[in-house]
Amino acid sequence: MLFSHNEYTNRLQRTKERMEEAGVDVLLLTNPSNINYLSGYDGWTFYVDQMLLVFSDEKQPVWVGRLMDAKAAKLTTWLDDDNIIPYGDKYIHSSVRHPMEFVGDVLTQFGYGTKRIGLEMESYYFSALCYEKLRNRLPDATFLDASLLVNWVRLIKSDLEIEYMKTAGKIVEKGMTSAIDAIQSGARQCDAAGSIYQSLISGTKEFGGDYPAIVPLIPTGEGTSTPHLTWTDRSFKHGEMTIIEIAGCYNRYHSPLARTVSLGKPDPRMEYVSNVVVEGINAALDIVKPGIYVEEIEAAWRNVISRHGIEKESRIGYAMGLSYPPDWGEHTVSIREGDKTVLQPNMTFHMIPGIWLDDSGVELSESFRVTNEGCEVLADFPRELVVKEDGYIDPWNQYA
Amino acid sequence: MLFSHNEYTNRLQRTKERMEEAGVDVLLLTNPSNINYLSGYDGWTFYVDQMLLVFSDEKQPVWVGRLMDAKAAKLTTWLDDDNIIPYGDKYIHSSVRHPMEFVGDVLTQFGYGTKRIGLEMESYYFSALCYEKLRNRLPDATFLDASLLVNWVRLIKSDLEIEYMKTAGKIVEKGMTSAIDAIQSGARQCDAAGSIYQSLISGTKEFGGDYPAIVPLIPTGEGTSTPHLTWTDRSFKHGEMTIIEIAGCYNRYHSPLARTVSLGKPDPRMEYVSNVVVEGINAALDIVKPGIYVEEIEAAWRNVISRHGIEKESRIGYAMGLSYPPDWGEHTVSIREGDKTVLQPNMTFHMIPGIWLDDSGVELSESFRVTNEGCEVLADFPRELVVKEDGYIDPWNQYA
């Protein structure tokens, strides 16, 4: 197990307290991060229906999933074997049966078929059809939306969680170094992506990497005017910019980091924007400390950029930590105007105030934790636009 | 664009025909594979709400998504800019607004707010909450489940799609070779995973790799008794088996492949099981041809294994091709008893009849397309248990 039995039962206790506040008798978790957080479960099995059932009056949660994956639950969770309840393959991608019928029957067997059932209505892995099938199976139950209940429990990290995130920070330093090395005029984007992956997954000598919840995002050229493009097998070009947004991941805990590379002398406008972004990040990190509102971080950033005539429509960051694809954000706190969350030590965020203009963009980011007096960034990497005066020779052409 | 304008409009036409059959006036697509299939859209943006709206009486679909991602739609789709309709960041992870309210208003503007609306009720990226919010916004609409409508349109591939999948087959041959090279006693699992990633993403000299919809699955030792474990930073051990399930991916088209490696002489029981699996796959591939039922493939397999005293509870394969995380399966056809789909040329499947026993397991698989007379596997890789008599020296210890 990656955490002590005590840490898991403590998490479970805090979850049950929130369930009681929300009037939830049983909580049905499908978000793989929440399942992992409470049980330790880890496997690429969330593409079929699976759940962790947290009963208000049972000591352990119950894992429900596909038969072939039950052994994964036995190997990776702290649950007793009796609390691992598999369904047969006949439920998979069937037009006549649905796994939620099975789940409904399990709830009935545990005496919860007519109780108040908390659902993650906004989870990637609880579809609209799951909701309909479950309601049909349990017509006398009361359903409540408990989408972010466990996400909020996860907001403040334990010391060991912070340690994992700092390790992820070491891994992302290595990944970013590989990225900057690999991005050269004439090099294929896919080769750079391959190199980034090898760094992030292999990890450091002491700590192996895990798969990040988002693939490397490396938009280049005009593609930098939007943040979420991946790569092609075309080549990087001299005179163009490339954004790199990646994360180190260790035991499913993330440390994201973004930088921007210019191959050759950057456009003066984008150099100016980069400097403003760095100044804005510095100002925003400077005011972070326990007791302030999250929105104050964004205000400090906005104060800097508006002085330089730059506007930004979107939020500049979000809470993050433990995660599975497709997102490493926790979907709770956003660093933006109106977010009145009060900062506390060991909250962790990714601050990524990207600026995307019509035909080009810049991203620099920092992941940080709130400390007792201020904050601490998770990765140590120069906070600046990377300018490479490259003289790359295409090895394929060279030896062809 | 990766396909001709003609191919996209042809796909759209076939989709509209099925919409008419199903009585759907407008189809709301959230499955990223279906969005890509009809529009060309490609980006890691499906972790926020986005949709492709297919109107029965409009020439082009409409993309709706986050403002910062609108440029990605302009760069990757064949749609006119007017058909790209972004919503603001205030809708993201908000407790007071929801993107489906915006989508509802777009439908009303197009005159479809009271029509028959087809939903992908079983998509990963259309949550139960999306469904509720949309119903509340459009109380006079009629909602229909159209979950797999486009998935079924995708079942038979075009010649260019087959070409992409064969290219993915070349990439997975390279990835599997790297995997087998990297899996050695004393080597860390994460280093093998890093090496596999580099091969799959870098691709071949001619064709760069794309990210597969599932990460490399490399359960080892007792972990081979379940299929969907990833990796740790512990080392492979002499005398243990490791399963490798990976896919090459090219332009989002997949070619999955599984093999099993034994480090040192295999347990005779598992060697026996491997031989039976190979014999079963051979028998199953042998009977594939247009005109037969899909379930006949499974029957041919089962006939072989039952003769050897082996049973398998789960399906042995599924339709696949174009995909995004978290699954490369198409969720339409399953190779199992009862599936009466009639095979036709250019249907494509991953046949993966894994056998997982109490403490160990074996997987070998083949991806194949149905041809005019029979079938053709997409990757050329020896179909056998890989036995390595390894003499690996840990480089960290060697140079420490």
UniProtKB/TrEMBL annotation, chains A, B:
It comes from the Bacteria. SUPFAM superfamilies: Creatinase/aminopeptidase, Creatinase/prolidase N-terminal domain. Residues 163-371 form the Peptidase M24 domain. InterPro entries: Creatin/AminoP/Spt16_N (IPR029149), Creatinase/aminopeptidase-like (IPR036005), Creatinase_N (IPR000587), Pept_M24 (IPR000994), Peptidase_M24B (IPR050659). Pfam families: Creatinase_N, Peptidase_M24. Residues 11-156 form the Creatinase N-terminal domain. This is M24 family metallopeptidase. It comes from Lentibacillus juripiscarius.
